[in-house]
Every structure is written in structure tokens, then in C-alpha cells.
Design brief:
The protein is an alpha/beta fold. The protein has a single domain, classed as Rossmann fold (3-Layer(aba) Sandwich), CATH 3.40.50. Helix content is 41%, strand content 14%. The chain is built from 11 helices and 7 strands. It has a 7-stranded mixed beta sheet, with helices on both faces. Helix 6 packs across helix 7.
Length: 266
Amino acid sequence: MARLEIITRHPSTRSRPLTLLFVHGSYTQAGIWDLNFLPYFADLGYTSHAVSLRGHGGSEGGALLPWLSMADYVDDLTETIDRVGGNCMLIGHSMGGMVVQRYLRSGKAPKGAVLMASVPPYGMWNASIGMLCRDPLLVHQLGMLMTFGPGIINIADVRRALFSDRVPDAELARYEPLFQRESQRALIDLLAFDPFPRPPDATVPVLVLGAADDAFLTRTQIDDTARFFGTSATIFPDMAHGMMVEPDWRLVADAIATWLDGIQAV
């Protein structure tokens, strides 16, 4: 297995029994969680980890990145869970949400899962067609990012893809080093239409969160994910796809914290 980068924040005072493990989406890495979410949840008493999937961030496998599959990413998540131990709650964003879903389909039962702006259970085929029709230039820029890396793209187009207009330019520049190429094979895996995904384990609680101004996913697609897991989605207004770094990111974190309190009280 590849050596994986894991960023960890420990509580400074009280410590809760539940461990949180964050899984990033495409074109980024574990550090995206360390800007806001890891410190926030550590302050609440949760030992919080974020993993860079192989070929991302400080993890090994960069030379093989174009050929890495979603199955490889699920293996990375499985290895990370084994390494961090404890009672794991999985939080996945975008592609990371599908990594979490595929882990659940393998029959594993973590303490729960949070899906933030996640790829729907049936894949990204219709979302991608919709985005191609709405904004072909944005699709072109993401293709350039996948092939050549962040140095070749127009950062203004990335803003449209991931962030709302309320994100200041100075903040956008802070996030830019966290962008990177993505695996072509993994993205093709996400595009594959899966009309009959394996039913979820009803004993695993799942929280589904979405953003009203998401350039990738429609409200219908977010609701489809929630229905698949037998729940309702919480949609945050005036928020774009990069929910963990939007100006109102704390609203998202607060919603997760409240939900965690509820399932631990059961």
C-alpha cells in the first residue's frame, strides 16, 4: 500500500469517544479540511483526521495518479480507518462522498457517515452532462486541471466551480496551493451509470448535506442521495460546492456537530 498523508488534530481538553475521519473530493487533498473543520471539531473534543488519498497531497502514488481507480481510494480509506482506529465517523465531500459510499457498500459499518455535496449513488453521468450544457468553459478548465495541474488553469473558472462570489480573492489565493490534478480513471469511474447501487446498511446513520448554489449538483441529485439513505437532505442557501471553505462554513460544521450529539445520545 502507498504511504498516506494523514493530518490529525487532537482535542486540547476533553476528549470524546468518537473519532472523525474526513475524505476530500477530487482535485484537492487533506489540507482542505485543516483550514476550518479539523480545528473546529478538535475544539469540540473530537480527535479529527483527514487523509490524502494516494496520489494526492503528501501521499505516495503521484506517478500513478492517472490510472488510480475508485477501488484504490476505497482501499486507502480502509487502510486509514485501520490506522486511526477507534469509533470512526466518516465525512466525505464530493468524490470523497462516493469513496465513503463504496466503503459502506463493501459491508463495512462505521459509526456513521456524513455526505457533503456528494456524488449521488448512481454516479455523476447526468450531473456532468448538465454542467457541460450550462458551462462548457468550466468543464474545459477542469479537464485542463486534470491533465496539466493547477498552473495552467484560470483561477476565476475554479472559483465558479467551487466557491460562491462571497469568497474574497485573498482567501481564494490561500486555497490555490491545495488544488491538483485528478485521476482520469477515477473520474471515469464516477461517470459510470449505476442504476442499481447496493442498498445501504440501515443501521448506519447518514447525514446528507448540500449547497444551494452548487455548480456540479442539482437539488434533485442531492435529494436522490438522501432518499437512497432513507433521510432528508439539509441544503445551505447562498453556498457553493466547496462547503468546508465557504464564508458560512461554520453553519455546516455546526449542523454536523448537532447531528453527532444526537446520534451519540441514542
